[in-house]
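User: Hey, quick favor. My workstation is busy. Could you predict this chain's structure for me?
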Amino acid sequence: MPTFKQFPLADTAEGLTEADILNWHVKPGDTVTVNQIVVEIETAKAAVELPIPWAGVVTELHVEPGQTVEVGTPILTIDVDPGGAAAPAAAPAAAALAAAPVEEEEMKPLVGYGSKAVVTQRRARKGAEPAPAAAVAAPPAPAPVAPAAPVAPVAPRGGYVPLAKPPVRKLAKDLGVDLHALTGTASGGVITREDVERAANGTPVVESVVDSGSRERRVPIKGVRKMTAAAMVQSAYTAPHVTEFLTIDVTPMMEFREKLKKSREFAGVKVTPLTFAAKAVCLAAKRTPDINAVWDEAAQEIVFKDYVHLGIAAATPRGLIVPKVRDADSMSLKELAQALTALTDVAREGKTSPADMANGTITITNVGVFGVDTGTPIINPGESAILCLGAIKDQPWVVDGEIKVRKVLQLSLSFDHRVVDGQQGSEFLADVGALLADPAMAMTY
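Assistant: No problem, here it is.
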């Protein structure tokens, strides 16, 4: 007998409420194995591939790529017993899934999270004859269930798939509203409950149509962009920001970099100004621990952290993300260089996991790679400071009373004035500047 299970969208990161379906790796009729990747989703933090905890045959995909789905919503149905006696009836059975009785079963965690899955089985037909003694262990005969349309995405019509969340689709089905006939009023043309209710009541919807010759385009705010915007607004309006600036001659640092590139120990290791800045931040944070602390509003406490989880702001095709180098303060310069290379490579591929972007203590953002001199960055929520690196440029500089062309870098530091006083912020920035201006200073720390 076919046994159908529904695979729900799970919470892949603490506090996740919804995610966008990016693309499916399976289709109805495909056979899958335990832990096989079946779908790629985009949360507010990262793109994540989800494995399925069962083996069987995919009978139905409930959502289309591009849709936003709430956590807990079934996104796929699988027959985990396709070789059962009633296997030929799999298709109509899947169609009747919504009308069949269900029982819940715990889904075993696969990628660090737990979730509920739904197992659907047929009850024995009322009044059925008892099974013979030799067949007591056989499954009960399935009850006849009239085929019913599942609560799932509306089938494409002429290549067009209406965009709507599963609860809205169910409402449209219950009210007899054809989603293909509606134009969504939410961002990106997503159909809302109000759109469906207006259609059911016969109330006309005022459509906003942009002709093909328009020089404007609209992009839905979702995923990383939505998360970044919310985080920046929260930080800007809760933490009193102070930004200080420092211009330094980093010629010695750049000369030291060239020496390292020629050394045997650093052969094949990519050492960049960001590598030196990361090391400098870790060393300077030990002398000014307030910079690595955080304000806990709920507990009315300042939390000092005896470790540095260093965030690196990275521009990716999905938007700005801030993956972390864990325990960066315990790493050598070479280890930091290797960790930064691995971190940025993964970020550019869009494979950074939500766990790798959580629980940072201080962040570095490098606008110098874009040729920009400096900036006034906003602190990441949960931290108290962010250091900005500008572009390293040849500029006139006074050296021993003479004007010479030197490699010059501008630094800026934004910090939370509730946690970090002006003196502490200035001392930290001065320490970072001294270490970058003369790497030999690290011997004194």
